Each structure stands twice: as structure tokens, then as C-alpha cells.
């Protein structure tokens, strides 16, 4: 069995934020590490046939709003379904997570802080000053990490993550891949937990 879970996501995703604590609990429960792989959601959606929320039919936009609220209650995560700064540019926060990975640092607390900033605290996570403060609050060297985040290396890492996500058949964000089997959406985390617990082999299409 694999010793890790590949976690494909983009920082502004409400469902990535809603599922993060549960993902961390599952990984800890089973002694698995998490590979944080922020990707370009637009590239993945282009492959899977999805469109941004604002371009979806009104009935789907309304349903999404309800879903965000009820998942927040189920996961015990405070979330505003219509925050001031959403949608927002995904690249700055995603590149910052890539920078943390490149620097060999654990991005978990920062990912949680970024999610809370946009979905609870009405902050603009595309603003470098906001990212700098969040990094510092999470115990990271903000100047060092942001220098990497603004480098070609971080952009290349995110680009490769996007290619990897498409190759893994990730439909959108978040997606979790274990032993080559993809689980799309935070509502499939319990399925991931069951797979690891049972030790069953991966399913394939």
C-alpha cells in the first residue's frame, strides 16, 4: 500500500477548505503523508468539461450555495457561502503552497489559514501582504517563502501538478489520489478512509 495521499486542490476552493481537517485526520489515522499539489483549476476543468461557478446555470449556482452551507455544518467549519473576495486570482496562494513544498515545510496550517481568510474573515488572499501575514502567523519565514513563490520554480511546480492531476483523472478540486485511485470532492473522503482501512486494491475504469 502507498505511504502517501496525493492532494490536488486550489487554495480558494471552498470544498478544499471544508475537507482539509478531515483529510488531515485520515492521514494521521493511517500514518500516511500528504503530497500537497496545488493546480490550475481552469486547466483541469477544461479537460473534465466543467466551467467556473459563475458560468453555471442558476439552478446549479443555488445548489452549490446550499451545499457549501450544509457541508460547513457537517464538517464543523465556519464558512460564508458568498465571501467578499471570491472568485479571486488563485495563482498567488497556490504558488505560496508550492513554495512551502519546495522549501520542505508542511503547508497544512497555511492552507487552513488561507481558507479561513477567504471563507470566514473576508480577506483578499491574492494580496501578497495578506499572504505574508498568514505565513508569519503560521511560523514560516514569509520573505523567504514569498521569494520562492514568485520564482519560476513555483510556477513550474503548479504547472506540473496540473498535468499530474489531469493524468490522474481529477475532475476538479479537491481530488485525492491513493494507490492510483482518484476521489473527487470532499464528500468522498470517507470513501478514501474506507479504502485505506480495508486495504482493498484500487479500482480502475
Walk me through what this model shows.
Helix 2 packs parallel to helix 8 (152-167), helix 4 crosses helix 7 and helix 6 (128-137) packs across helix 7. The chain is 54% helix and 10% strand. The mean pLDDT is 97. It has a single domain, classed as Glutaredoxin (3-Layer(aba) Sandwich). It contains 9 helices and 4 strands, in the order βαβαααααααββα. With 205 residues, the chain is α+β, with helices and mostly antiparallel strands. The chain has helices at 14-30, 41-48, 58-75, 91-102, 108-119, 128-137, 142-149, 152-167, 189-198; strands at residues 4-9, 33-38, 175-178, 181-184. Strand 1 (4-9), helix 1 (14-30) and strand 2 form a beta-alpha-beta unit. The longest helix is centred in the N-terminal third of the chain and has 18 residues, at 58-75. Strands 2-1-3-4 form a 4-stranded mixed beta sheet.
Amino acid at each position: 500500500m502507498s505511504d502517501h495521499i496525493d492532494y490536488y486542490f486550489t487554495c480558494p476552493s471552498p470544498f478544499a477548505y471544508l475537507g482539509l481537517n478531515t483529510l488531515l485526520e485520515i492521514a494521521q489515522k493511517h500514518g500516511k503523508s500528504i503530497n500537497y499539489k496545488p493546480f490550475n483549476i481552469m486547466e483541469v476543468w477544461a479537460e473534465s468539461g466543467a466551467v467556473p461557478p459563475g458560468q453555471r446555470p442558476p439552478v446549479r449556482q443555488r445548489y452549490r450555495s446550499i451545499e457549501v452551507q450544509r457541508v460547513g455544518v457537517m464538517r464543523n467549519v465556519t464558512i460564508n457561502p458568498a465571501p467578499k473576495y471570491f472568485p479571486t486570482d488563485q495563482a498567488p496562494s497556490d504558488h505560496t503552497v508550492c513554495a512551502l513544498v519546495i522549501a520542505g515545510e508542511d503547508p497544512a496550517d497555511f492552507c487552513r489559514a488561507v481558507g479561513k481568510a477567504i471563507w470566514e474573515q473576508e480577506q483578499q488572499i491574492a494580496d501578497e501582504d495578506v499572504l505574508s501575514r498568514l505565513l508569519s502567523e503560521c511560523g514560516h519565514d514569509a520573505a523567504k517563502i514569498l521569494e520562492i513563490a514568485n520564482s519560476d520554480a513555483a510556477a513550474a511546480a503548479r504547472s506540473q501538478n496540473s498535468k499530474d492531476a489531469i493524468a490522474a483523472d481529477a475532475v476538479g478540486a479537491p481530488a485525492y489520489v491513493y494507490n492510483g485511485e482518484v476521489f473527487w470532492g470532499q464528500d468522498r473522503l470517507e470513501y478514501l478512509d474506507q479504502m485505506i482501512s480495508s486495504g482493498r486494491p484500487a479500482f480502475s475504469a
